[in-house]
Design a protein that fits this description.
mainly alpha; 3 strands; 3-stranded antiparallel beta sheet
């Protein structure tokens, strides 16, 4: 085959996008286009030139809002199965670290039984969302853990703001609906 390595790489990455996970095919295609641009210009492939968000230059990173929009049905199914199948007393009596490990392990098993074809980064991100929903503050858990954030304001399912260094900023985090917000509020006010 006389095709240059960058073109072969672009083709392989596009094929991965189509076969591994439809939700991230566009990001993979952007990376493939970056390789083709590099080939045309004679330079190395620069994933940062692609419109997608690439953590390691090889795979798209996972955005929680995109995950929620794409996999909400799966996330809710996993959460419901965890609630129905896990022994609550075991989780409640465990240390926070052990409880997280128990829920993560159970969530991974359920996700694999529901859809074993998920791209590993997607599966890991879904597990994180599920664990945060079950044990933490749902979509705002990561904001809560960030010491540089002084305030979190939720004005609706898709209107979440943070205050950082005295500056108010809207963030791309969202809740499923108002009921999801109320679940988190109940968790905050219930000891």
């Amino acid at each position: 085959d006389s095709a240059p390595d960058t073109v072969r790489s672009a083709i392989a990455e596009f094929q991965q996008a189509v076969t591994l996970d439809q939700a991230f095919a566009a990001a993979w295609a952007e990376l493939a286009l970056a390789h083709l641009d590099a080939f045309r210009s004679g330079g190395p492939a620069e994933p940062s030139r692609a419109k997608g968000n690439f953590s390691n230059g090889l795979a798209p990173t996972v955005n929680a809002s995109d995950l929620l929009a794409t996999y909400d049905g799966l996330i809710q199914k996993v959460e419901q199965r965890l609630i129905n199948e896990m022994d609550r007393r075991t989780v409640q009596s465990a240390s926070p670290e052990r409880a997280r490990a128990l829920v993560e392990s159970a969530a991974r098993q359920i996700i694999m039984s529901e859809d074993s074809r998920l791209y590993p980064q997607v599966r890991d991100a879904i597990v994180g969302l599920v664990v945060d929903d079950i044990l933490g503050l749902g979509p705002i858990e990561s904001l809560y853990r960030d010491p540089s954030i002084s305030e979190i304001m939720v004005n609706g399912p898709d209107n979440v703001y943070i205050e950082k260094s005295g500056k108010l900023t809207k963030v791309g985090i969202q809740f499923r609906d108002n009921a999801h917000i109320m679940q988190v509020i109940d968790r905050i006010v219930t000891p």
